[in-house]
Amino acid sequence: MKPARFHDIRDKVLVGVNHVFAEPVRLTFFEGKKPDPSRLQIEIEAVLRTGGGTVSNVSGGQSQSWRTRITAQKAELHINRATYTGPAIQQGDIVRALSRPGEPRFEVLHVDDRGHSRLVIELGEA
Questions:
Q1: Which pLDDT value is given to residue 65?
Q2: CA proximity to 90, closest of 6, 27, 12
């Protein structure tokens, strides 16, 4: 595969971003509801971005008569493709943020492996 002209610059930017924003996370791989023995858990450094969760009622409107509310937390894990050597990440796997208070867990909802610089893992509440 012939590298594009911008690859050198891209790689330098990735190293800089990871140096500033990456944090330790543990990836635990599952097969159904059980840990997958063929894909052992690993710890890596990656950029974990979490949004400010929103609270909304089930009806989707502004009605205050509903008692049930849902909290949705948007999160993404950005892994440098050039350095990741672990197993393939799949829907249902778990990401644990090791340096955050309470070591929160996130479930893998979707893996975008089409980018040339990062694997982008869409995460949900676990």
A1: 55
A2: 27
